């Protein structure tokens, strides 16, 4: 039987393993950590019984992904839950822009900018299913829907600082800039609007749900499905060279998928990798980092705006101009006084995460790559800014800086949870210029991590595309 080894058990590695197993290959997944899942793990970080997502928390692409949706993961216990409001972006004057599956809820929160939002973002939401077929894959392909893709591309190519000029007031400007800041990059550069358009449209198309029981439910379901297909996952095995795969599995695999960062792929493949590929992967750039803060709080966050108290995700950064300035500082390696902060209130949709009157609060700030300071105070100050009295409700805290995140998951080089800088070049072509970006120039060896198209997010598409590339060559 043809055999395959997948190194790394993040969602991309597991989806790639499942696709290979579906094709009849004998599949083994090797994971260095003591639990599978990569960025899709959940832990009790602050108090017994309180469930905190270790990294990935909200999954607009998860429910829409053509890699995950067809797998029937509900049979393995995966269930989605939605808050009343998917996303809120509060402002200092007490107003807030809201993102909801119900487009009219968003439009009402934006007042006179509702019509512009419908024209710009609403159209992308209408086209989302057709767009996904072209956007969430390598850029070098024959478009299936060229008209919709062109219409999207004209706006996606704009800097965020230009696109928000279409809005007259801050609720819409801040809301869009806050979503676009998931780029982890400068918002005054071309292509920076692409992430904001896709994530906002996905929110209108399917919301920003959470996995019931924590994000680990996604990886648990994928592992269970793989087992039913005859595949296995072995934890506690760190792979540093291709030759070790034979020692771990007893034979030389016909296919190898590396769910790793490009620098790890270079080390594992070693001298077998052609010099041109090695040079390209060595030049691959990593981006800004995250500083994660998990809190146990007594009750709820006392947000000034009542609608924010119903939102699963909250973006904190103030005006669009303030967010853009903070992101520029981070990219330049300087820690802003008021960083862009994401707050997760997953327990509003999934009450199983709370216990004994305490609720888990998930948060992180954008910080410079490899940042060695402590951003705890900056995060707390941003929350307190829009929720006076919040500090009094904090019972316990757990913090993870960039080095801690890299230790938790080696793919997060320097704390970069996006697995690569989202520069204009790397947004459209990652990890290198190639017709097939999953190949590494070595027969049977492929890269399937978030460093490959379509990039970060819990969607499994990098693994699916890499597996399809491997199968096409068998």
From TrEMBL:
Transmembrane regions listed in the UniProt entry: none
Gene3D superfamilies: FAD/NAD(P)-binding domain (3.50.50.60)
A Pfam family that the UniProt record links to this protein: NAD_binding_8
SUPFAM superfamilies, sorted: FAD/NAD(P)-binding domain (SSF51905)
Organism domain of life: Bacteria
Protein name: Phytoene dehydrogenase-like protein
Species assigned in the record: Mumia flava
């Amino acid at each position: 039987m043809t055999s395959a080894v997948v190194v790394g058990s993040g969602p991309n590695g597991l989806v790639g393993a499942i696709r290979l197993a579906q094709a009849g290959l004998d599949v083994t997944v090797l994971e260095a950590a003591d639990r599978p899942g990569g960025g899709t793990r959940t832990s009790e970080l602050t108090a017994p019984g309180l469930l905190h997502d270790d990294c990935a928390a909200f999954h607009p692409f998860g429910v829409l992904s053509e890699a995950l949706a067809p797998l029937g993961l509900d049979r393995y216990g995966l269930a989605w839950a939605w808050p009343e409001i998917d996303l809120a972006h509060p402002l200092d004057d007490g107003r807030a822009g809201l993102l909801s599956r119900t487009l009219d809820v968003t439009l009402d929160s934006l007042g006179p900018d509702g019509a512009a939002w419908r024209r710009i973002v609403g159209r992308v939401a209408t086209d989302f299913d057709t767009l996904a077929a072209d956007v969430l894959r390598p850029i070098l392909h024959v478009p299936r829907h060229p008209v919709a893709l062109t219409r999207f591309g004209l706006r996606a190519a704009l800097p965020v600082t230009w696109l928000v000029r279409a809005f007259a007031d801050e609720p819409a400007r801040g809301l869009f800039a806050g979503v676009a800041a998931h780029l982890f990059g400068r918002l005054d550069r071309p292509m920076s609007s692409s992430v904001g358009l896709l994530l906002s449209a996905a929110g209108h198309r399917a919301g920003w749900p959470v996995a019931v029981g924590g994000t680990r439910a996604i990886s648990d379901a994928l592992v269970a499905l793989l087992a039913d297909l005859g595949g296995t996952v072995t934890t506690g095995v760190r792979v540093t060279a291709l030759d070790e795969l034979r020692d771990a599995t007893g034979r030389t695999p016909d296919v190898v998928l590396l769910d790793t960062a490009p620098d790890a792929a270079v080390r594992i493949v070693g001298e077998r990798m052609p010099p041109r590929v090695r040079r390209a992967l060595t030049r691959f750039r990593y981006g800004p980092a995250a500083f994660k803060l998990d809190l146990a709080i007594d009750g709820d966050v006392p947000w000034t705006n009542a609608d924010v108290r119903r939102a699963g995700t909250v973006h904190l950064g103030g005006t669009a101009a303030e967010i853009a300035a903070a992101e520029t500082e981070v990219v330049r390696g300087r820690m802003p006084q008021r960083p862009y902060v994401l707050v997760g209130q997953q327990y509003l949709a999934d009450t199983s995460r709370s216990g004994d009157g305490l609720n888990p609060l998930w948060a992180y700030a954008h910080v410079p790559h490899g940042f060695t300071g402590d951003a705890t105070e900056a995060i707390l100050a941003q929350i307190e800014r829009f929720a006076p009295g919040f500090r009094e409700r904090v019972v316990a805290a757990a913090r993870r800086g960039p080095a801690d995140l890299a230790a938790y998951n080696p793919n997060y080089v320097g704390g970069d949870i996006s697995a690569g800088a989202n520069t204009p070049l790397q947004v459209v072509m990652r990890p290198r210029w190639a017709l097939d970006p999953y190949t590494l120039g070595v027969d049977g060896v492929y890269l399937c991590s978030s460093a490959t198209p379509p990039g970060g997010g819990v969607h499994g598409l990098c693994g699916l595309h890499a597996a399809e590339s491997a199968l096409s060559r068998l």
